[in-house]
User: Which sequence fits this backbone?
């Protein structure tokens, strides 16, 4: 690459004819990602997320994801949302948080889900007693059934009459309808399910469940996402987001079935290397699975999480905002669900009506316009296509957490700010992925040199950020910066290799 280009004589003013342009060629720039709008989560969720981020010392967006995901899990069995004439569906939400090792994902998740974990612990304490009672009830039921069958058998060689057979059939049908069912497992959430495991959980346990994991690689790398099972798992999880019935087809009698009225929310935390593979997976992209997720990836706080000036006696369990969040979440997750005889949830329908609908329609149309060929969200259309529906779901979750019967204009507008954040962040990440990665890395190296005296010596490569410390990584980027006019070689080694560099134009 040349350092400058000579303009054609006829393209320059007379006074500049023949002059060589020596200005450095521009490098690709990273767009500044927006800040997560915690205030849009409201007084209950937003204040709790802010305080959790402070106490755990995690990025604010991670905390926002965690509390909103927990709230969706708590309310999804209580209400469905109707978007005027444009359909109705669950308020379930799917989240994906990308954060590196040591970012305290587990600590944050544990606190955000504390009321749900507490309820699960209480259920576990009573589970052995329930299992024992079920075992006794089933043994009594089996003895009763066997005794009726034995009593109905004809004496001697007399065949059973038609009326006797009919009576036995009706009696057994009545008894079979009374067969004791095992108590549900105490867990509301699971982390590494297969499609069959999800089906069984929603069939026999809690009809409103959560796919939650602070190590999401367990889900994406587990048996349920193996080559054999990933298609079934992705299809089932996607159907649950849509609110559609899920099916299971098996060869053995009684193993097939259809489940309606089940709900699932999800929050999966992934390390960046795993997230890159997941987000680039053609199957997950092609089936629209990833487009259902609201994704956060924020800059790391590692190196800034200092304890100086903090009161060691005041932690999250002493914080009024977190206590208020825990109290409300506990109230919601323990609220009884309306369940029919088949085990299906019948949530209360919530309408986005009147002025709130007008606000939602305005948001919908703005997203639609920005999804056009010239729009901001043209490269993230799969996510944009579900953004308005996600906004309706978020608005309903916010409303129910705050004690409202249905979303107001304020809830719609706040949900719109959150969805705008998710779409804008995704658009920036997608644009960066299409840029020249090496050019972006060269810019980052240049900024480091500028911030450290404007000079770099080869023996100081070990002082560079970790991704540039080896000569094999640093030298190609430095050569690129010399070729583009940003650096000049300031000295060479006895072997003739560049040994020091300084900012171009500086002596």
Assistant:
């Amino acid at each position: 690459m040349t350092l400058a280009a000579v303009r054609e004589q006829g393209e320059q003013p007379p006074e500049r004819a023949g002059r060589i342009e020596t200005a450095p060629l521009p490098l690709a720039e990273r767009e500044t990602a927006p800040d997560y709008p915690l205030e849009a989560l409201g007084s209950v969720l937003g204040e709790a997320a802010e305080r959790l981020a402070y106490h755990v010392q995690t990025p604010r967006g991670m905390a926002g994801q965690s509390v909103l995901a927990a709230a969706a899990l708590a309310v999804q069995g209580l209400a469905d949302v109707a978007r005027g004439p444009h359909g109705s569906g669950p308020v379930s939400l799917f989240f994906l948080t990308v954060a590196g090792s040591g970012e305290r994902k587990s600590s944050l998740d544990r606190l955000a889900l504390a009321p749900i974990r507490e309820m699960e612990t209480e259920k576990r304490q009573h589970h052995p007693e329930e299992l024992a009672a079920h075992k006794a009830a089933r043994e009594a039921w089996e003895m009763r059934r066997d005794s009726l069958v034995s009593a109905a058998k004809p004496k001697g060689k007399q065949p059973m009459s038609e009326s006797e057979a009919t009576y036995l059939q009706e009696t057994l049908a009545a008894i079979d309808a009374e067969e004791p069912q095992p108590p549900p497992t105490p867990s509301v959430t699971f982390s590494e399910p297969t499609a069959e495991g999800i089906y069984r959980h929603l069939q026999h346990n809690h009809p409103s469940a959560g796919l939650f994991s602070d190590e999401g690689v367990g889900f994406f790398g587990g048996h349920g996402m193996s080559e054999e099972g990933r298609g079934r798992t992705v299809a089932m999880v996607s159907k649950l987001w849509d609110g559609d019935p899920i099916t299971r087809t098996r060869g053995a009698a009684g193993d097939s079935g259809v489940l309606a009225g089940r709900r699932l929310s999800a929050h999966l935390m992934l390390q960046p290397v795993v997230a890159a593979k997941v987000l680039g997976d053609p199957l997950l992209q092609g089936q629209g699975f990833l487009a259902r997720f609201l994704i956060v990836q924020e800059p790391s706080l590692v190196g800034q999480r200092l304890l100086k000036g903090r009161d060691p006696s005041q932690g999250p369990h002493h914080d009024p905002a977190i206590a208020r969040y825990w109290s409300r979440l506990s109230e919601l997750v323990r609220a009884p669900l309306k369940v029919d005889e088949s085990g299906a949830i019948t949530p209360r329908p919530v309408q986005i009506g009147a002025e709130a609908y007008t606000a939602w329609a305005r948001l919908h149309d703005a997203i639609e316009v920005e999804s056009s060929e010239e729009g901001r969200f043209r490269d993230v259309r799969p996510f944009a296509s579900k953004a308005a529906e996600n906004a309706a779901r978020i608005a309903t979750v916010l409303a129910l957490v705050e004690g409202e019967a249905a979303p107001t204009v304020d809830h719609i507008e706040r949900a719109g700010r959150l969805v705008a954040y998710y779409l804008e962040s995704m658009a920036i990440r997608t644009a960066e992925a299409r840029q020249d990665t090496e050019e972006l890395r060269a810019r980052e190296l240049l900024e480091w040199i500028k911030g450290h005296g404007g000079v770099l010596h080869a023996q100081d490569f070990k002082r560079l950020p970790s991704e540039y410390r080896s000569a094999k990584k640093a030298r190609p980027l430095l050569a690129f910066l010399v070729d583009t006019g940003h650096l000049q070689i300031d000295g060479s080694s006895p072997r003739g290799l560049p040994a020091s560099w300084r900012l171009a134009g500086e002596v």
Q: What stands out?
A: The chain has three domains: 43-150+168-304+314-351, 362-434, 438-503. Residues 1-18 have pLDDT under 50 and may be disordered. Residues 114-152 form the longest helix (39 residues).
